Amino acid sequence: MGIIIVTRRRIPKGKEKDVAGLIEKLRALAETQAGYISDETWKNYENQEEHMFIREWESLDNWHAWMSNKDRIEIQAKIEERLNAKTDYSTYQIVQRSK
Fold it and tell me: Which of 13, 53, 62, 78 is the 20 to 30 Å CA partner of 2?
């Protein structure tokens, strides 16, 4: 089984348009990477500024290669600059999956 990476960002109202294109560039770039499986974006109902991005990879090695990708690093830096905040990443190993 693969791994799940949960990325959390606080995107203040009025900043969505500033980062939407950059986040889409990250998604498109990730889709071309070895080991990429899927991607979802979630928005918190109770706190509309909280966004969660769930990306599934075949292996931790694939994730580390993605994190080392020069283009990803540049895009990520632009996102953090616009949001004036670091991005939070958590890595999860799939233990069980039901259909």
Answer: 78
